[in-house]
Amino acid sequence: MYFKDIIGQQTLKERLLRSVEDNRLAHALLLTGPGGNGKLPIAVALARYILCSNRADGDACGRCPSCVKMDKLMHSDLHFVFPVKKKKNTPSDRNPVSDDYITEWREIFQKSPYFSYSDWLAKLEVENQQPIIYERESSEILHKLTMKSREGGWKIMIIWLPEKMNEACANKLLKIIEEPPAETLFLLVSENAEPILPTILSRTQRIEIPRIADADIAAALVQRYALDGQTARTIAVQSGGDWEKAEGMLVVNSTKAQYLELFMTLMRMAYKRDIKAMKQWSEQVAALGRERQKALLEYCQRMIRENFIMNFKRAEMLYLSREEHDFSVRFSPFVNENNIFGIMEELSEAQKHIEQNVNAKMIFFDMALRMIVWIKNR
After folding, report:
1. How far is CA 82 from the centre of its chain?
2. Other Cβ atoms closer than 10 A to 68
3. pLDDT, tens digit, for every residue of 125-149?
4. Which domains, and CATH codes, for the chain?
5. pTM for the full model?
6. Taking the CB of residue 53, how many other CB atoms lie within 10 A of it?
7. Is the distance from CB of 327 to CB of 264 less than 8 angstroms?
8. Which of 14, 225, 252, 367 has the most crowded CB, counting CB atoms within 10 A?
9. End-to-end CA distance of the chain
């Protein structure tokens, strides 16, 4: 990943380059902002630039030994930390560390640098377990950063989703983040900085990274996928500044197709008042795992908004796939000003309860029952 590969974010790239060239880069940066905006690719591109021995024209050279190693994310002075899960058949007192999953990490980044947390969960084959950064990871970090640089230059530690660190791990890192060894750089890449310990936040320079501009996403879609301008602009607007979503909209993949099928089934059951089917549906959704359940509820909310807009006969405002459109033509009359707020509130409330680890079967069965009232009494 080079700076030239980053989609949009030109102002930020120039700011980081100036900081490096003027030797004014803080020793710990917190890169935060919404998903899909390129935070992690930016961190890796910055690390490559700093480690490159022959950088020029605002980017790494791509030819020096450092760049060759970076191509495979195998530079000995670049370290990654990220949430992991416990492996089966391991002692209960041995928590995993990032190096246990470094092969999977390299594979997913090289395949798609803009991958999401949900993509990482799928890579780990997580069900209901919540990956975290365990206390044992702090010992690994301290060991790596207190050793001399193997290449004789900078040591860089990229921590992806530091909000997933447990408190013990975070507390053990306070001193080294505040007073790191010479030529040591922390790059913390966060989706949501609120859960991070205030003592960690106070030791970092926070950089808010915005969503990618629609024009930049559209231009990248045209360049990389040879889309026509109108299609690219439509996808760019619908993605909401999230490149990972934009790429996902190029095809109706199996996950999105599953969400559409579950949404259609829910609405048909509500119309028919089929309680028995609702119970089976709630059990099916409960088996998806919490992250996919949250993603399904987000998808349902988007579909409700799109169906409401469809009633205004403004095709240019709709962002639906062909399959979604075919269903919405028949369903949209059931979503109007009398029930849209109630439906959205039910979906939002269910999402909040899922995040609080409430029993999923109960949440989805209760939500399905309540949906009867909003769909039938429209």
Report:
1. 13
2. 12
3. 766 678 999 999 999 999 999 888 8
4. 3-208 (3.40.50.300), 220-250 (no CATH), 251-376 (1.20.120)
5. 0.70
6. 14
7. yes
8. 367
9. 51
